[in-house]
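R.M. (postdoc): so does anyone remember the format we settled on? I'll just put the structure tokens first.
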């Protein structure tokens, strides 16, 4: 198997120049202070389709023959790859067909159609859509554009690594999310060819350790609902696993709560929207600060396509985790004035009531007692801690709902 080289990546960089954004890589002063590392972020979420996938897709499309362009291309994707192929296909006048699972959010379907692609919904899982796309490619003569397991796709993705090395000097470490492995393969190829002393670390969601299983020989269950659906790949590529086995120093896993935390911090600190997969590298740095402390470390924010409702949930959950929003279950005697006494105590503590639920029936408490559930918001965690003590001091039993 011939693996892509740094020369292939350099040619890809020349090929796609001007049609893909050379995204900035910036030092995060606040994240550096939080982690104790010198943290640099490459903002691939600033691409037109909000993901690095444009690089590989365009590099592939530009190398098609006139005859292949005339036949058109097909891809299977429920996300960023679909939009990248559709967008650059339309720019180049190449007919594009995208096969998506039937449960793909309508927003992603419509965005892909807006880029000029013909979208076919097929199967409940990505594997079903992928198999059908291959079937259509064989039947109708389309050129299949793989999302990651193609040397031209890998070379295009590797341009991220070239830019990163050009933008940041004296790096100690590069942390890159892994799904199918295309981005990691390309970045690792560039980094190890030009600065072999730089440590290259891949990151997978804890629920989807598929590449780690392949490389490390571990046997861990793969599957589940993850915020990082962009790297939720059950079967990584054969080409990419060969590259990663040779050129990546290690693969580490990150838990869902750390991915959520990273997404929220990027909104709050950097004022940038990043999807779960795109925040996985930062999530690892935040989860293991002792590993990166004192090092100059860069990570790629590889995508920014996150559903707005999901993003809102993540941000609210972050407020809960940092103690600014809490749900308190307060147990009291069901008598006149009990609720007034509770609300007065909350007011005196300077805490705001968001919502109140009164439960007399569906509770294991005695019939003369009641359970009052109150959602409150405060300036910081200390205010809610103080409120709990005030309520307990006033004779109420209080329990706080926890996320972890």
């Amino acid at each position: 198997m011939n693996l892509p080289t740094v020369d292939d990546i350099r040619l890809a960089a020349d090929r796609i120049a001007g049609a893909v954004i050379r995204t900035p890589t910036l030092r995060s002063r606040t994240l550096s202070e939080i982690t104790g590392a010198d943290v640099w972020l490459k903002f691939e979420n600033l691409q037109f389709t909000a993901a690095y996938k444009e690089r590989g897709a365009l590099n592939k499309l530009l190398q098609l023959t006139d005859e292949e362009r005339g036949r058109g291309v097909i891809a299977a994707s429920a996300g960023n790859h679909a939009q990248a192929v559709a967008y650059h296909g339309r720019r180049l006048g190449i007919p594009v067909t995208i096969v998506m699972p039937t449960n793909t959010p309508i927003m992603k379907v419509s965005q892909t159609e807006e880029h000029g692609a013909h979208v076919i919904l097929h199967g409940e899982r990505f594997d079903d859509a992928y198999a059908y796309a291959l079937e259509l490619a064989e039947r109708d003569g389309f050129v299949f554009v793989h999302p990651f397991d193609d040397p031209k796709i890998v070379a295009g993705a590797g341009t991220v690594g070239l830019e990163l090395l050009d933008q940041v000097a004296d790096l100690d470490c590069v942390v890159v999310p892994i799904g199918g492995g295309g981005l990691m393969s390309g970045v690792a190829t560039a980094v190890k060819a030009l600065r072999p002393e730089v440590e290259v670390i891949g990151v997978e969601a804890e629920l989807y350790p598929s590449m780690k299983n392949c490389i490390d020989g571990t046997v861990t269950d793969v599957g589940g609902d993850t915020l990082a659906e962009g790297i939720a790949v059950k079967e990584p590529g054969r080409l990419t696993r060969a590259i990663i086995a040779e050129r990546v120093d290690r693969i580490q896993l990150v838990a869902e709560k750390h991915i959520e935390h990273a997404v929220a911090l990027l909104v709050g600190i950097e004022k940038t929207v990043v999807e779960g997969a795109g925040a996985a590298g930062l999530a690892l740095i935040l989860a293991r600060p002792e590993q990166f402390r004192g090092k100059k470390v860069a990570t790629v924010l590889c995508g920014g396509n996150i559903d707005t409702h999901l993003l809102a949930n993540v941000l609210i959950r972050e407020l809960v985790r940092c103690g600014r929003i809490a749900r308190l279950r307060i147990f009291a005697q069901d008598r006149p004035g009990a609720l007034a006494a509770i609300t007065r105590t909350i007011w005196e503590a300077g805490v705001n009531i968001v919502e109140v639920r009164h439960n007399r029936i569906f509770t294991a408490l005695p019939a003369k007692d009641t359970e009052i559930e109150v959602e409150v918001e405060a300036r910081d965690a200390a205010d809610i801690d103080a409120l709990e003590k005030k309520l307990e001091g006033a004779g109420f039993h209080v329990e706080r709902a926890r996320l972890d």
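R.M.: ...and that's the designed sequence above, right after the tokens. Also worth knowing: The mean pLDDT is 93. The first strand starts at residue 25 and ends at 27.
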